[in-house]
Amino acid sequence: FELTPAIHQLTQRPLQLTLCPGETYPTQRLNSVTPPSTMAVQDMAQMATYVYDYYITKVHAMKTAFYDAQKVWTKPATHRLVQPKRNIPAHPGADLDTDSEEEEERAKENDMETN
Questions:
Q1: 36-58: string of b/e by CB count within 10 Å (b at 16+)?
Q2: What is the pLDDT of residues 24-72, one digit of tens each?
Q3: What is the distance of C-alpha 73 from the center of its chain?
Q4: Is 115 inside a domain boundary?
Q5: Does residue 29 lie within any of the structural domains?
Q6: Per the domain annotation, does 99 fall within a domain?
Q7: CA–CA distance from 27 to each of 13, 20, 82 (Å)?
Q8: Is residue 93 part of a domain?
Q9: Total domain count for the chain?
Q10: Cα–Cα dist 107/89, whole Å
Q11: How far apart are CA 37 and CA 29, in angstroms?
Q12: DSSP character string of 51-81
């Protein structure tokens, strides 16, 4: 007699699981609104098949998006090499050797004036 209310409540529920395949968590749909498309799962085998197919589709979509975002392949030796511009002194001892930030700033200003 103690379990009668719980059993009565369980018998009011459907025996099959109903899924909304197009929805993801968290949904934007209110609970009172009927979902546009539903799918009733009859047994565990059908649920396992649905989950497997769902994940295969998702993985394929992710792989496609990943490979589409990759850089376009260029044939070797067709890419132009850009050499960085470096200021190399003519004499190894001609390079400024400073210990303070103020001297470095002055050296940069002098370099800017000469260029």
A1: eeeeeeeeeeeeeeeeeeeeeee
A2: 888 888 989 988 889 999 999 999 999 999 999 999 999 999 988 887 7
A3: 22
A4: no
A5: yes
A6: no
A7: 22, 10, 50
A8: no
A9: 1
A10: 14
A11: 12
A12: HHHHHHHHHHHHHHHHHHTSPPP--TT-SPP
pTM greater than the 0.85 cutoff: no
Task: Supply the range of the domain harboring residue 52.
Answer: 9-68
Q: 17: which 2 tokens?
A: 């699981």
Q: Tell me, what amino acid is at 100?
A: S
For residue 17, the cross-strand partners are 41
Provide the mean pLDDT of the chain.
82
Assess whether pLDDT exceeds 70 at residue 17: yes
Distance from the Cα of residue 70 to its chain's centroid: 14
| Tokens at 48, concatenated | 């396992």
At 72, list the tokens. Answer: 């376009």
* DSSP character string of 22-59: T--SSPSS-TTSPPS--EEE-SHHHHHHHHHHHHHHHH
